[in-house]
Amino acid sequence: MKTLPETGFLRITHILGNPKTNTPPIIPVSKSTWWAGVKEGRFPKSIKLGPHTTVWRVEDIRRLIESPVEPIGN
Questions:
Q1: Strand, coil or helix: 40
Q2: Which of 2, 12, 34, 60 has the fewest beta carbons under 10 Å from its own?
Q3: H or E stretch covering 49
Q4: What confidence score (pLDDT) does residue 27 get?
Q5: Residue 74 falls within a domain, yes or no?
Q6: How far is the C-alpha of 50 from the C-alpha of 48, rounded, in Å?
Q7: Residue 3 lies in a domain
Q8: Virtual CA dihedral for 59, 65, 67, 69, nearest 10 degrees?
Q9: Is the pLDDT score of 73 beyond 60?
Q10: Is 33 within the bounds of a domain?
Q11: Dihedral, CA of residue 31, residue 4, residue 6 and residue 29, to nearest 10
């Protein structure tokens, strides 16, 4: 896993990875799983910075990594 900054924001490609730029995933799930988890409250809420820019707080992603959620169906 790559090192996260102390504070700031991450875009979805930073969280889920991007094969075009060889960015490894921090949370290895699909986009649809990620967005379903955000909607259900299993993953952190997003922040809209503009009409085409959605981000998540680094602190929220770090908290998710430290105490992962239960898989669906358990």
A1: helix
A2: 2
A3: strand 47-50
A4: 94
A5: no
A6: 6
A7: no
A8: 110
A9: no
A10: yes
A11: 20
Q: Is residue 22 included in any domain, yes or no? A: yes
- Do the Cβ atoms of 68 and 37 come closer than 8 Å? no
Could you tell me the pLDDT band of residue 63, with boundaries at 50, 70 and 90?
A: very high
Residue whose tokens read 């991007």 = 18
Tens of pLDDT, residues 4-62: 889 999 999 999 999 999 999 999 999 999 999 999 999 999 999 999 999 999 999 99
Number of structural domains found in the chain: 1
Q: Which two tokens stand for residue 33?
A: 């799983």
**The one-letter amino acid at 52:** H
Query: What does the alpha-carbon distance between residue 55 and residue 8 come to, in Å, rounded to a whole number?
Result: 9
- Whole domain around residue 60: which residue ranges? 9-66
